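Page header: ASSEMBLY MODEL / two components / 924 residues total.
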Amino acid sequence: MSELALPKIDNSILNRKSEIIKNLSKLTDKENVLSEADELRPYETDALSVYTQTPLAVVLPENTDEVSEILKYCYSENIKVVPRGAGTGLSGGALPLQDAILLGLGKFNKILEIDYKNKCVVTQPGVTNLGITHAVQHKGFYYAPDPSSQLACSIGGNVAENSGGVHSLKYGTTTNNILGVQMVMMDGTICRFGGKSFDQEGYDLMGLICGSEGLLGVVTEVTVKILKTPDVVRAALIGFPSIKEGGDAASEVISSGIVPAGMEIMDKALIEATDNFSKAGYPRDAELLLIVELDGTESEVNELIRKVEAICKKNNCSSLKLSNSEQERLSFWAGRKAAFPACGAMAPDYYCMDGSIPRGKLAEALLEIKKLSEKYELPVANCFHAGDGNLHPLIMFDGNDKEQLRKTEEFGSEILKTCVRLGGVITGEHGVGIEKRELMCEMFNDNDIQQQLSIKKSLDEKNLLNPGKVYPILRKCAEEGRVHVHKNKDKFPDLPRF
Amino acid sequence: MSTKIKINSQIFQDSNNVYYPKDEVEVSDLIRELYKQDSPTEIIGNNSKSFIGNKTQSANTTSLSKISGIIDYRPEELYIKVKACTPINEIEKVLSENSQELAFEPIDFGYIKDGKSNKGTIAGYLSCNYAGSRRFKVGSVRDHVLGFKGVNGKGDIIKSGGTVVKNVTGYDLSKLIAGSFGTLVALTEITLKVLPKKDSSKTVIIYPNNFEQIDDLFNKLSSSSSEISGAVFIPEQSHDKEFSAKRNNVFKFNDLKSKVSFVAFRVEGDKISIEEKINNLKKELELNNSDISTLDVYQSEPFWEKINNLEVFEKTEHNLIRMVIPPANGSKLCKYLENNHNYFIDWCGSLFWIEVNSKKEEKIKDLKKMANDFGGYLTVIKTSSEYDYGEPIFTVDKVRLMISEKVKQSFDPKRILNPGKMYRGV
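Prediction written out in full:
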């Protein structure tokens, strides 16, 4: 893996390690301050596990006041801080620094209030995404954003990354589904943006924090909107004889006025890989597979299904299956959700990319990726959130072969540049982190980046909070790592990734 | 030679010394020069909403109204990219030709301003972030902005976002720009998410007996899986004969009883699912033996237009307040307002439009305290002639003000753009 540039190490901090640990132990229970090598090991990396770094210490505060005191101390002593939720992030946003403390929010694991009358849940940031839905589903409610790691990822991490999920076309991402946050700034100031009412007046600071990858503050409480579970949810599994016909059908679904709850595309390589892996019963003769999910009232869903069927037939679909039970609907998704491990079973390593493109450019993007695959002589499988244009190519390679690794990095970088060229962006949902830092200049010019850095400086003048992430350190578009999974040993091998 | 003329002879100025840059380069040149001269400017579009917010005290006025026109509309990609001061009417017209719409339902503030329709421009609308009746279901203006381009207070052209819905590249500045009243960036280009227009709509009217029942109706409506896309409460205001007459005149519909308070909710979709949802809701709300009426699409559409035009407060000369609170506190607020101030409730119990019964501002203090206690906020949207700005028209706490000052500083260090429009020092 290429050398990763990180902020300059402050040796004075390293030299004061024992004093810093002693002082931190006065600000929270001393059991919450970890500094032994074996205690630090689990925190060395997040789900971008190719990069590892031991932090100076790990601190696990238990309440907002402790977070505030810890940050105030670090601010006065010029100690860098890396915040961390569940550590499931795929872009290295929670990668520790040698001279920084890692601030883990794992002890913030309680739901504080369920308010059905105001249709919201007030929760601590360490609660898992799915944990919120589990807390309200007995009353027929749920929390809409559903990143594939929802079983393990924390809501605080979702706020930091503005996480989406397969349903984000219809229901939006995290930023559209939260009402308020409590946050602590680097100097220890505790602030509250929004609450239980809609649309905070004045600058939308909650909107700024959401997706800021832990660079502007540490979120200590989140108020999320909950929605009523739809009456009926059905899915359709449709095979197409060519990429173009399938892509056209997906575009036509949207332009006909249908807003599907979810719409996913897989290419032939992935259909075969997942079907081998999970026996999902996918049409193996198809060049492209489309899964469309629709929700609403019964007559609404039936009408939409009828329209989707007509569009797919018009675009020469080779097979079409509708789910007639909840079990069948879940079986349609089973293969798709196994896409990542299926690729892991086919090659020693894979890289997962995360670009967004305009939906209508799918065929063009896939053909381009195919050409690149031939150029670099590396196999690739593609899945695509067709509803919202988020593309996840999975490049398969052998990490022990240095030349293959180099080629993979170049291949990945070219894919993201292609996304930008087609009118898209370099990250749809995984975040920039350390992974795509140097590609920021593919999307933004100096003015744009300077403006963003200027905001960072205004809220964290000493650049102590999660430094080295998101914005390029190198003044060139160097190729860095992507999500690298070796021998299917993902940091979270059990999490579905889609 | 005055400073104004020295700025750039290419940039058109009218007889009132208003600058009219015609593209982003001219906006950048103008602001860069104003930055050098430490000379602030008011930023305006079509002036439809410039009455909202504090009066900007600046030597210059910059109108972005020449920066208008549709750049790129892709119905199949569900986005439209426009120059910042494209009139909302123009955008809605082209979307409508493709059976699409701006789902956040832009409010027409022209009626309260001077009784004439004027939806203004998209930049003005984004700068206020005031969504219409569908907000509680589809989100606000900020939820529909995919990206923008504009000029910061140093004259730098900056951009954020793009045209795709899934995008987590860098800070989400589109959210920050929404509701910033032109104090961070002079907008030059905006990309919006658009959505398919629903085939049809119907509105069901219920005549409740007391505030607890209204509260219960709003709660059940927002808890239903038979999604509604609008819910208002329009009280009868018998204490104010003049207003009452105006109210009854605005809401004159064949199938709507006059001179009584009512709750109205809207169901949109294809005709079959509308009927299905209404039947479900009647059961959930236990309305089968109640006195209700239904407005068909021909009445339903103008009804919601009147709501979103704020027609009951047309040309109001009183202080007009927009208060947003968590809906569970609605009935408490209703009890306070009843027979005291004229008002109606939108967003299924969250948004209160209140015409304060005095032209003086002292009562605003009480209402603001109430909004804060309820966990919400208020904005004085239109001020009376007697308002002397002793009571700030926005609600902000000390910490948020401190952060807002820092954010302002990062975009506009010399406070060139709309200084003081929102808060002193911002």
